[in-house]
Known about the structure:
The chain is 38% helix and 16% strand. The chain is α/β, with parallel strands linked by helices.
Amino acid sequence: xxxxxxxxxxxxxxxxxxxxxxxxxxxxxxxxxxxxxxxxxxxxxxxxxxxxxxxxxxxxxxxxxxxxxxxxxxxxxxxxxxxxxxxxxxxxxxxxxxxxxxxxxxxxxxxxxxxxxxxxxxxxxxxxxxxxxxxxxxxxxxxxxxxxxxxxxxxxxxxxxxxxxxxxxxxxxxxxxxxxxxxxxxxxxxxxxxxxxxxxxxxxxxxxxxxxxxxxxxxxxxxxxxxxxxxxxxxxxxxxxxxxxxxxxxxxxxxxxxxxxxxxxxxxxxxxxxxxxxxxxxxxxxxxxxxxxxxxxxxxxxxxxxxxxxxxxxxxxxxxxxxxxxxxxxxxxxxxxxxxxxxxxxxxxxxxxxxxxxxxxxxxxxxxxxxxxxxxxxxxxxxxxxxxxxxxxxxxxxxxxxxxxxxxxxxxxxxxxxxxxxxxxxxxxxxxxxxxxxxxxxxxxxxxxxxxxxxxxxxxxxxxxxxxxxxxxxxxxx
Length: 478
């Protein structure tokens, strides 16, 4: 569904969808959401799966479209969908509740999925969204088909991962997995408003005009970092498989479709789109067969340990030749004790090796992500991270993002604080800030509602934030 159809109620007439998937905004406050946010790929997968099954889905990206409750209400009134699906996270439940109330007002059955529903389906169903018909725990591509069948047949039948209001509270089951290779390709020109993002980037001393599209090809993550909710979202502790990756032909087909839509650049937003040198080689071979060499630019994420220990210089040269202009890595800390504590599975030596090797073979940009202020982290350990970042800059690191640690439900760190410092969790309410043109200000993960005197780390939040600012300013020369 296109944003151009959000007009007065009498103009909206796209036919009645079986389900309207609404990507819940991070906030209804205008001027906060950036213009280059990626599409809701979880919902896109649900849309193409339900369409393949024979249902008529529609997608309303209220987040990227920066829609108000009134505009969403207009769409509900005009389309009269047979059901609505929403995807609240832990930080936008109030916004999702406003949408849920609109659905209840129109008498539209509400389906809840995504992060918030998966981490605690019964709290979501019984307390936060008592008006909801059902909650999906886990991936929604197959679960939505069951729920839509039930709506059509006027029944409520049990299915793995589908929780109706009368579900047994002892249940922990996740929804069945829909194989990624069997999903139809996602044609973003049909589902996404303005999927192509234009911009100029500096590559090897030249300004290059990129027309970039985001792709998300995998699901889950094979690692178990303590600050990340992914292990809980994929059911690691319940014995479920934690990482899914389609075959390379599928990834190359998505790449080909992206180019046909007008992109000359791809941003793989997966945590791990490529997990070994063989993946790099197969992708490069595919780019060559598609005759896209020297025409396609791409960027993505991987692990420092993979680059340092598994990739030869020849492997990485092939990576550069395939059009890779930026590799990003989650590093998080320069302190070995912290890295072990958060189960990052890398060492500072591997990070140094990875940065050096990537730059040596001609990857133009190497980015790293860091977090400061982990529970009980000392100022000295943060200082170690600051010095490590400056060392990496000398080795060729070109860009960084630093976040002040914030605990989220479903993570090991959240559970740790519940046991050791529960009063901290009572003082957390997160809001996103943005809009600055200054590179340092843009990169400061500032949370106005994280009190200055709150002590998650060994020092107050204000001190952690000051260290983040100091490090960013030093790296970027401000």
